[in-house]
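Please, structure for the following, as tokens.
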Amino acid sequence: MYIAFDLWNTLAFSLPRDPIIDLINILKIKISIKEVQDKIQTRCFYSDNPIFEICQHLNINYIPETELYFTELLNNERLNFKLFPETLQVLKQVQKMGFKIILISNLWNFIIPTIDNQLLSLFEFDGVFLSCLLGFTKPNYLFFDYVKNDLGIISEKIIVVGDSLEKDILGGIKSQCHAIWLQRDISYNPKYVLNNFQQNKLFLGRITKLSDVLKILNQTY
């Protein structure tokens, strides 16, 4: 059985503000944040002038003055990357229980070196699946299909643990994966959505802290 942990707000703190929102403001982009995310988080930008490359990809005008703001945006994201205090301990305990552990995340490639240094160098995952390398973002079923095909397993052998009801939980369940919802913000209680899948055998429960995943895994397996 594979436990697929989301990154942002699951293993690592999310920034108070999504960097892509700042990117939209910097470039004065007129399309929706979801459209920008789908375009920016599903490919890698490797040129020496990534903001120019991004503008070309989005088919918008490049303004040289935005380079400094974009550099500051990236530096802020890298400097503020931080794991939750319990993250490494929980990962190691889940591993000791005999589960294989993979990382699944929607992100752009600029943060990958930071993740390498502050997470992947400290814990050896059995697989790392990032949207910018796969070409798909969660909750697209193609993301989850790629994961299961790469691992050579069926969907029911994957348990998704994440904070996003739409991207992680509903995305996982619709792809026939099991799911555990890490609901750090308990004030968010969308009953109209929950009622549709809480009785689904693939939904294993809601938790409010990462360490509670151990209880569910112990009870279920």
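Residues 19-80 form one domain. The chain has two domains: 2-13+84-220, 19-80.
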